[in-house]
Amino acid sequence: MLEKNSRIAEDAAIVDEAIISRRSVRAFLPDMVDDETIRAILTVAARAPSGTNMQPWRVYVTKGEVKQRISDAILNSGIRAEKAEWDEYRYYPDQFFEPYLSRRRANGFGLYGAIGIGRREVDKMRAQHDRNFIFFDAPVGMIFTVDRRLNKGSWIDYGMFLQNIMVAARGRGLHTCPQAAFAPYHRQIRPVLDIPDEEVVVCGMALGYEDNSKPENEFRTDRAPLEDWVTFSG
């Protein structure tokens, strides 16, 4: 029994470390990730649960010239992020309220503060946000879509799939950054990847090796204590 409990504790520690060490990395090294590793991550991630095993995910993996074409299409569109139209789905509420407003502000101030951008330096904030569209220099950029005929349940399933990718990446020494910022630029992305009209662009994701020399990667978010959001009964 002691041996079994020890093995369980060791396994739990490995899984917990992959989950806890996952974070949104915003500066990557140019070191390439081989296709075999990407395939292994996606294969594992596809074990995510989905209602009646529908597996609603669709992934476009891009590198090199194709990834650059996505970046160019967005950055040359003339559409600033704050003016981009979220016409396929709404990620955020129209009006933020507590406690979410405070958490959002703390995240933004913390990130920009880590890289020396002041609260009124709008141009610098925009430039940092635009780094989303070059996948923060990651060698691999993924675009995720879902069939628009599916319902909210499939979007819940999709979230579990995305989390699996990020955790599986950590198990291989890689980092990620999930990026909803790509969603309102579906018109620019579609022709590059030949995405059919029946697919909604859900988000993008950067994948690669963290650049530890960059200050933005020193930023850490916190989490609300359990007591703030859990109710135990019985």
UniProtKB/TrEMBL annotation:
- By its UniProt entry, which InterPro entries does this protein fall under? Nitroreductase, Nitroreductase-like
Q: Which Pfam families match?
A: Nitroreductase (PF00881)
Write down the species: Mesorhizobium captivum
Keyword ATP-binding included in the entry's annotation: no
Superkingdom, taxonomy of origin: Bacteria
Q: What is this protein called?
A: Nitroreductase
Entries under CDD domains matching the protein: PnbA_NfnB-like
Q: Which family does it belong to?
A: Belongs to the nitroreductase family.
Q: Which PANTHER family match?
A: NAD(P)H NITROREDUCTASE YDGI-RELATED (PTHR43673), NITROREDUCTASE (PTHR43673:SF2)
Which cofactors, if any, are listed as required? FMN
Asked if the Swiss-Prot or TrEMBL record annotates the protein with the keyword Thylakoid, the reply is no
Keyword field: Flavoprotein, FMN, Oxidoreductase
Q: Nitroreductase domain: which residues?
A: 20-209
